[in-house]
Design brief:
With 344 residues, this protein is of the alpha/beta class. The chain has two domains: 136 residues, NAD(P)-binding Rossmann-like Domain (Rossmann fold, 3-Layer(aba) Sandwich); 170 residues, Dihydrodipicolinate Reductase, domain 2 (2-Layer Sandwich), CATH 3.30.360.10. The protein contains 13 helices and 13 strands. It has a seven-stranded mixed sheet. Strands 3-2-1-4-5-6 form a six-stranded parallel sheet, with helices on both faces. Strand 5, helix 5 and strand 6 form a beta-alpha-beta unit. The protein is globular. InterPro entries: Gfo/Idh/MocA-like_OxRdtase_N, GFO_IDH_MocA-like_dom, NAD(P)-bd_dom_sf.
Length: 344
């Protein structure tokens, strides 16, 4: 099949290399607002660069992969849906609930596929943890502890457009907690601080955050995130049950040093970033999308999953601002009052 890749930045370049090596992809057509960048990525990956997004849609591709800046996601999702094209899109659908629901309505009306990019669902560790929870191996799951730490903060220009730490970063934890447990979040309590560069405060954002989530079966989940972890990129999760406790993301490259006297020396070079840490997961995710387009697999992460995770992020942001617990029903009621009820 012929796939159009929109966006040739860091994640787009990675996807280009992965897609050209994916069985079932006969040609990859790359476009970016910077044609020179698209040409460079295409040449490196063995793909073909086209002169802009319009050219990709005119080329008669079989599917589209969206790896552009967040602000362009809703428009491109809608355009692809109206053209009858299956879409893989990096999260989010949109930085706000109204934009997300509007785009999902277009996809629903068109009857097309929208697979969202939540790569942790394809990571071997998270998959094993999901199996352990769903099989009952842990007994009654009562506590989840999730950690997401960037090795260094993003550029100052990125922060005002990111949606903030809960929507941009912790949304991955919110999604994987729902997916792993099969439970919904009913209430959150969140806090955040901004002790680093001034551009976080200038954007009304935080660089370090924590949230306590209550799931619909009473399980408690704590999630923390920071933009400052100089030892390396660190994404981990612990799941504690009445019978056992397991951990995801603890290995030879985890940037975590034990100070216990009987602990061994640090392991290999720590993870540098998300593309390094989740290389295999991203490749598996894209390979699955190709199979979905070919009719060989069900969509593993439809757009409504991104909406649910964003609702949790919105609740956390409201909780942080107002310093109070927020029920998810408040966020759901708000979308209904705004005329943006969730598509069926």
């Amino acid at each position: 099949m012929r796939i159009g890749l929109l966006g040739a930045g860091r994640i787009g370049a990675f996807h280009a290399a992965a897609l050209t090596g994916t069985p079932g992809v006969s040609e990859l057509l790359v476009a970016d607002v910077d044609h020179g960048r698209a040409a460079g990525v295409a040449a490196e990956a063995g793909a073909r660069a086209l002169d802009g997004v319009d050219a990709v849609f005119r080329a008669g591709v079989d599917a589209v992969v969206i790896a552009t800046a967040t602000a362009s996601h809703p428009e491109l999702i809608v355009r692809a849906a109206r053209a009858g094209l299956p879409v893989y899109c990096e999260k989010p659908v949109s930085v706000d609930l109204a934009g997300t629901v509007a785009a999902l309505r277009e996809v629903e009306a068109a009857g097309t596929v929208l697979q969202m990019g939540f790569q942790r669902r394809f990571d071997a560790g998270y998959l094993a943890a999901r199996d352990a929870v769903r099989s009952g191996r842990l007994g009654r799951l009562h506590t989840i502890r999730a950690v997401t730490s960037d090795a260094a903060p993003p550029p100052a220009s990125y922060v005002p457009l990111s949606g903030g730490l809960y929507r941009d970063c912790l949304v991955h934890d919110f999604d994987v907690i729902r997916w792993l447990t099969g439970r919904e979040v009913t209430e959150v309590y969140a806090m955040g601080t901004a002790g680093g560069e001034d551009f976080f405060r200038a954007s009304g954002d935080v660089d370090t955050a924590a949230a306590v989530l209550t799931l619909d079966d009473g399980t408690l989940a704590t999630t923390t995130a920071t933009r400052y972890h100089g030892a390396g990129y660190d994404v981990r999760m612990e799941l504690a049950g009445s019978a056992d406790q397991i951990a995801v993301g603890v290995g030879t490259r985890t940037p975590l040093t034990s100070v216990e006297p009987d602990a061994g020396p640090p392991g290999r070079q720590p993870w540098a970033g998300f593309l390094d840490r989740f290389d295999a997961a991203y490749r598996a995710e894209l390979a699955t999308f190709v199979r979905v387009v070919a009719g060989e697999a069900e969509n593993p992460c439809p757009g409504v999953e991104a909406l649910r995770a964003l609702q949790v992020a919105e609740a956390c942001e409201l909780s942080r601002r107002e310093r109070r617990p927020v029920a998810l029903s408040e966020i759901e009621d708000h979308t209904r009052l705004a005329g943006t009820a969730v598509p069926a």
